Amino acid sequence: MALGASGGRVAGGTLEALRSLNGPSEVNVAGLGAEITASADLGEVGVQRGHAVQTGNGNESIERYYLIVPMGTNEGLNATLALHYADAELNGLAESDLELFRSTDQGNTWTRKGQDRRDPQENVVELDGIGAFGSWTLASESAPIPVELASFDAKTGDEQVRLSWTTASETNNAGFRIQRRDTGENGKDDEWTTVGSVEGEGTTAQAQRYRFTDEDLPYDADRLAYCLRQVDTDGSAHVSDEVIVDRDVTEVELLGTYPNPARQRATVRYALPEVQDVTVRLYDVLGRQVRTVVSGKQKGRHQRTLDVAPLPSGVYFLRLRAGGQTRTQKLTIVQ
Question: Which domain holds residue 25?
Answer without folding.
Answer: 14-142
